[in-house]
């Protein structure tokens, strides 16, 4: 964190814990939930079927209408997937601003929603709706994707009207400054420091 190096699962999880406290403060816990990236990533998280079941189990434990913030690491790059299983809508945020993901991860998320529907005995749509957030801010420099998805999560949590998807729907020229990223790093450090003091 101090040297802007590539961030690990545990750093992302610690920041999600920090954001969870904000949700408590804003009384928004019924609106947003987090999923541990250790359950979703390519490395050491099981085969695609196991990962889809793991995601589905998180949805079932959640509250009705909740969205789930799912950091995903493809092996060398962080992306954020926001899943609304009840509405069968997925927002995709890649700090490199590439188009919608295809292949294994999309299949895993789609299957997780199908499993969720089966457990709820709900007849879902044939195709899950994926939306590319074309207006998200693009990462600057190498190995900074983790910091960017941390800031995406911060922006979502701090949007009390939950209008973030409309804000990022269209391409824009805005970008995070180093001060914006430093704000995330400072929040993370302050949160971690409270455990070292106790």
From TrEMBL:
<dbReference type="InterPro" id="IPR038765">
    <property type="entry name" value="Papain-like_cys_pep_sf"/>
</dbReference>
<protein>
    <submittedName>
        <fullName>Putative Ulp1 protease family catalytic domain-containing protein</fullName>
    </submittedName>
</protein>
<dbReference type="GO" id="GO:0006508">
    <property type="term" value="P:proteolysis"/>
</dbReference>
<comment type="similarity">
    <text>Belongs to the peptidase C48 family.</text>
</comment>
<keyword id="KW-0645">Protease</keyword>
<dbReference type="GO" id="GO:0008234">
    <property type="term" value="F:cysteine-type peptidase activity"/>
</dbReference>
<keyword id="KW-0378">Hydrolase</keyword>
<feature type="domain" description="Ubiquitin-like protease family profile">
    <location>
        <begin position="67"/>
        <end position="189"/>
    </location>
</feature>
<dbReference type="InterPro" id="IPR003653">
    <property type="entry name" value="Peptidase_C48_C"/>
</dbReference>
<dbReference type="Pfam" id="PF02902">
    <property type="entry name" value="Peptidase_C48"/>
</dbReference>
